[in-house]
Amino acid sequence: MSVNLDVRLKRANKVYHEGEILAGVVVLISKEAVQHQGISLTMEGVVNLQLSSKSVGVFEAFYNSVKPIQLITSNIEVVKPGKVPSGKTEIPFEFPLQAKGNKVLYETYHGVFVNIQYTLRCDMKRSLLAKDLSKTCEFMIHCQPQKAKVLPSPLDFTIAPDTLQNVRERSSLPKFLIRGHLNTTNCVITQPLAGELVVESSAVAIKSIELQLVRVETCGCAEGYARDATEIQNIQIAEGDVCHGLPIPIYMVFPRLFTCPTLETTNFKVEFEVNVVIVLHDDHLITENFPLKLCRV
Amino acid sequence: MAAVLWHSRVRKYEAELNACRAESVAVDISDYHPLKPIMVTESKSRRNARRGSTSSTTSSSSSSSTAAADPLSSLLDGTDPLSLFAAASSDVPTLTHSASAGELGRRRRDREEEAVGLDFEPWAAKRVEILARFTTTEKLSINLFMGSDKGKASSPSSAVSEKVRTRLEELDDLEEGSQRELLNLSQQDYVNRIDELNQSLKEAWASDQKVKALKIVIQCSKLLSDTAVIQFYPSKFVLITDILDTFGRLVYERIWTMCSDPNPLPEGFSPDDVNDTAKETCLNWFFKIASIRELIPRLYVEAAILKCNRFLSRSGIQETLPRLTAMIRGIGDPLVAVYARAYLCRVGMVVAPHLKDCLNKNFFDLLATFRQIHGDSVQNQLGLQRVETPVYLTLYSPAIHWILQCVSYRAPEALLTEMMERCKNLGNNALLLNSVMWAFRAEFIATRTTDFIAMIKQCDEAGFPKHLLFGSLGRSLASADPAEAERLSILNDAWKVITKIRSPQDYISCAEIWVEFTCRHFTKREVNAVMADIIKHMTPDRAFEDAYPQLQSVIKKILTYFHDFSVLFSMERFLPFLDMFQKDSVRVEVCRSIMEVFIKHQQEPTRDPVILNALLHVCKTMHDSVNSLTLEDEKRSLAQLINGFIRLVSFGRDFEQQLSFCVEARATFCNLEPVIIQLIHTVNQLAMETRRVMKGNHSRKTAAFVRACAAYSFITIPSLTSIFSRLNLYLLSGQVALANQCLSQADAFLKAAVSVLPEVPRNISVEGKQRSSEGLLLDFINNFMATLLVVPDHPEQGVLYLVRGLLNMVQDYTWEENSNAKVKVYLSAIPLLAAMSQESYLYTIPKVDSNETLYGGDPKFMAEINKLCDTLIGQVLDHLQALGNGEVLRKQSTLAFSVFNALLAHGDLRNNKLNQLAVKLWNLSHKHGHCDTRASVRTLEHIKHLAQQPELSHLSETIPRLSLQSRA
């Protein structure tokens, strides 16, 4: 006796906003009629915070994780105990997406130390002899578009030996000059990061130029706060000894789920930065950091 | 059995002919011909043909002139059904497939490719060329890391589970065996591997492992960033982009099927027609690809699925193409970059041929980064791989050709001019120049030839090989003509450079191209000079040995432009040029092509000694190539060519010279039997032609000549191995000799034929199969006997010497067992003998006295004939009796019936014995019920018909005695 339980949302992209109705159907497919003790749906939105082992001890990191913050929770019984007929049964449902109390529904975000996740779980309780069935499906929340207009903040930059910090031996550095600009550091999350970069000169051949997208997650807790920067993705924009004097495009699409509009709350912060990484043929690594502000319009 | 006393029936041929002839209808011969309507039908379209055929039967029509054309050739031009069919089928296959959604997608793509037009040389053509040209003997390696691809932003939800996940992934990878480095692959191994990858991509896709499919594609495109074994790079590009194309097609078709439920998308669908699920899937692909770490795979894979942008937005392709174009600037290695551009242009041309700007942008970017090619890092790499700069530069050609071809396709003149100017201004631009000449419209190049030559001259000698430049220029000039006034100076300028090329290979590949230009616009003088130059270059160190294909193509080009062989052979250098072909197979090949052209284009027979000498030489070369290992087909086709030549030789009225030509030819072509046969026919024809000219009255001189012809045939025929050719030619030559009043010669021929008869084997091989020769032999003997009627008896030999000789041979010949053949010969000898006993013969040869005149119906002669007939009939009856014993009653019946027929037709049935014999035979044939009743009935009717004639009235008495089987 096999029953197939599935939750299907109405929207193909599973993206919802606060205040909207989360609608869909529970689908049951079975060859025979199924006896059950009730089917219920649980919708939940949680922020999970985790302390990195770097900022606190290893054990604390493991056991002392910060209590999750519930943003929204709702539970309904879809079907009372009874029997579901054989074949395919579709049970529609709707949830209003309204945050608890004065909280806001943050945008879905999958990070390392901060995770904002919304799930919809369907449980089918059954008699002692049969296993309970459960099906979880994640849906995405996009936060409300920001009202204020995004002001473009173009940024020109120059990278040369003397603009660098944290250099151990400045004398061993080869000569180079790289100019470039970012179209804006106030980025709209749906638009790619764009700009240009020109290798004006370089005494040593360039091996690779990369864009490193970095998240900076800050968790506040009793002992203070922990701030950690980790890489989201690394995109190569130049390979090999590129033509000097010719602008190379800077272009990066912000990955879904792994990025969200820059977020700052009382308990945690999620911010983003981009590093322009230049690898020279003698394996010199030159990095220039640019903080970004992501928003949704 | 007692001898039947034979009496031949007296025949009055004239009267019989008149009686038999149907009422004659006066038809103008020129007007009516049974074949004519057919010819008209074939040469015109069907509707016209019907009209044509009716008109030609009803009244005289003017269409006779069209009908005069060779029906075969008129059939072939224009409305050749095969080519029509081929043309039709080229767009049929897409329709014959089931119209599944995937197919629909494919059909769409076909349609869009058509939008580009047929004059655009498709990638598929280039593909093969590149694969063949860029090869290597060095070891290659494939490095695939299918494993944890860190760039793929697959960061999991927690740090702990990440470890678990990686471990699991590693396990997976081990199972797939996907992290591997394959070293030391030969080129073929490499190609096979890539093929396997292509296959596993399709399999992964089919089994719904989309991620694995994507991984394969990414890893493959990563191989394109590797320029180790750089000579192989273009081929590698071809192989890997095949995979990318496959991938692009798979993704597109999948998304297409997702939206085709319930109805397939319309042809020019807009993003609004696409449902959300499909859009989401499509978007997912783009996000996934956007997060590929390395630049080159990201670029290639996104280009591969460029077309999928159509599902998302109207302007998607338009926005993506320039972005990808700009992205290529990030590729440092110029070779990798230029091929990436080529791929982008290729995809662009297929998906959005109207977006020209992007193509141009690609080209301008290429120009901007052009200096990279001569940069340090490239030079270092070349040093490492020990590749020379000219070789390296040629690696660029396919890509740049392709880009320029895309750019220049249907581009306005102004743009082309601008492009050219830009190329001109760059330093060391030979590579670009080459591609410009290769890819731009030939007309464009042709009008600026002088400029180009000047530019080529300025190019750096150390860089791009100059012969390639001139080769490309020549290629353009071969299809478009420069201004008339410039032509000579162009040729002079070009040849000045070409002649200085030192390497014979380079020289010939360039010269080969320019020969076409020379042939097209100049006279034999220039072509001769060119050939002299080629000979000069190719002779030292036997360089020609490595250049046969090119030399052959030179000959072919010359032959296409010079059809007049007197001009051709008056070029002093033509034959010395031919002498360069020293490898037998090539030599024969060349001779063959010369002969083919000659036979095709020589309209009238020739006697030009120059042509004859040269062609005889050519044919002799072909002939001499024949040895015991030569295939039958090969021999046949060679013989056909030589025969074609012999037929085109005519010395007009100078018959003697023609004969001596034949003598010479016989000596030259002694190994090819069909040629010998042709020569005999030619000589026979010559004899008949002489007779025609003399109107049948030979002078002493012509008589001697005709006898010489006969002698020629007589001594030539025995050299043939095919027995039937020999027999038939003896007969034919005998007839010719007879027609020319050479009695003793004719006698000799016929005697020879008879003496050859016993040699006829019972089985001969026809097209490799053993067949009984009986049928052929009977045919021949019948034919032979028909001739014997008019051959006068030799005064020194006995009466009917030849007939007796023939019959003796027949008697002694070992016929097949259980065969009626011998009796059949006897039976057919009866009509001959009967015809011989007539007062005036059915046919005679002018100026030759047949036996009718010689003997003048002498009773002794008649008695001799009758005796012979008696013997024959006796033999036949013996045979009939022998048949009665066995199980061969049917045979007996048939044979008896044919004997009866012979008696009826040729015997005098007033004679009682003969009459009785006839009746007996009739009854015998009906005795066992094996007789064909219908034939019997018809025979009876015929007899009744005959009996109405006064001289045959005696037959009416016989009729009642002939009973039909059914009534018995």
From TrEMBL, chain A:
The keyword tRNA processing does not apply. Transmembrane segments: none annotated. Coiled coil: none annotated. It holds the Pfam family Vps26. Keywords: Endosome. Component of the commander complex that is essential for endosomal recycling of transmembrane cargos; the commander complex is composed of the CCC subcomplex and the retriever subcomplex. Component of the retriever complex, which is a heterotrimeric complex related to retromer cargo-selective complex (CSC) and essential for retromer-independent retrieval and recycling of numerous cargos such as integrin alpha-5/beta-1 (ITGA5:ITGB1). The recruitment of the retriever complex to the endosomal membrane involves CCC and WASH complexes. This is Vacuolar protein sorting-associated protein 26C. It comes from Clupea harengus.
From TrEMBL, chain B:
Belongs to the VPS35L family. Residues 51-69 have a biased composition (Low complexity). It is found in: Endosome. Residues 40-72 are annotated as: Disordered. One of its GO terms (biological process) is protein transport. Keywords: Endosome, Protein transport, Transport. This is VPS35 endosomal protein-sorting factor-like. It comes from Clupea harengus. GO terms for cellular component: endosome.
